[in-house]
Amino acid sequence: MEESVHQELLTDRERDVLSLISQGKSSKEIARCLAISVGGANFHVNNAMKKLGATTRAQAVALAIFHGIISARPNSPSR
């Protein structure tokens, strides 16, 4: 898929969770950062993984970086 198609497939929240995963955050830490439940964090992670065709969180992050959806630089905005 084209990068722009990948970008449009993911919601802002899905990009946020992938960015936080890339910083080494756990689901509990992601939930705390985004003021959502752990279940909500996992929901967004799993949706992003499905949309990217990833089988692991690490693969989802790698694909998101590869397609320019999130930045590889720590603490940089994902949008």
From TrEMBL:
GO MF annotation list: DNA binding
Alphabetized InterPro entries for the sequence: Sig_transdc_resp-reg_C-effctor, Tscrpt_reg_LuxR_C, WH-like_DNA-bd_sf
**UniProt-listed GO biological process terms:** regulation of DNA-templated transcription
Q: Which CDD domains match?
A: LuxR_C_like
Q: Where is the HTH luxR-type domain?
A: 3-68
**Keyword vocabulary terms for this entry:** DNA-binding, Transcription, Transcription regulation
Report the protein name in the record.
HTH luxR-type domain-containing protein
Organism, as annotated = Paramagnetospirillum kuznetsovii
